[in-house]
């Protein structure tokens, strides 16, 4: 028979390892709340839902505590009535040269509540990616989270934290 203490200890370690980052204590200041708007695809509007969902997933994975991705722009009961602090939007072009290989490029921007552009970048999918849309979403999330990490660290330095 297995040692019950060892089984209990192993189970506790597994549960702790599976605890999501979002389960961090509420006292830790979360970064800005970002809403991912519908994206504009001039050549193929059917791609919007797919790329938007991939972008949301990539942002959630990359941002950590530097941002929170929200599903609504306006105030909700869950966010104390503030709504999103910024909206991520952009125009995206999907190109295909041979119906098998796609390339995605986009002009993305993060805009605050007052319409001020906080961040903007031209993003491309990797030419060797298995999925051009996933590569584009990952590259966008990496660049935006890098900007947010830098902005958050500068804010902490100014406030003396």
Q: Identify the strand order in the major beta sheet.
A: 2-1-3-4-5
Integer-rounded radius of gyration: 19 Å
Q: How many helical stretches?
A: 3
Class by SSE composition: alpha/beta
Which whole number gives the mean pLDDT?
79
Shape: globular
Please provide the count of β strands: 5
Question: Span between N and C termini?
Answer: 52 Å
- SSE order in H/E notation? HEHEEEEH
> Could you list the spans in which at least 5 consecutive residues all have pLDDT below 50?
1-28
Question: In percent terms, what proportion of residues is strand?
Answer: 15-25%
Sketch the major β-sheet: 5 strands, mixed
The share of residues in helices is: 25-40%
Question: Which features would summarize this protein structure in a list?
Answer:
single chain, 161 residues, alpha/beta, 5-stranded mixed β-sheet, 3 helices, disordered N terminus
Verbal overview:
Helix content is 36%, strand content 23%. The protein is α/β, with parallel strands linked by helices and 161 residues long. It has a 5-stranded mixed sheet with strand order 2-1-3-4-5, covered by helices on one side. Helix 2 (48-63) runs parallel beside helix 3 (132-159). It is globular and about 55 Å long. The N and C termini lie far apart (52 Å).
Offer a quick outline of the entry.
This protein has three helices and five strands; from the N terminus they run H-E-H-E-E-E-E-H.
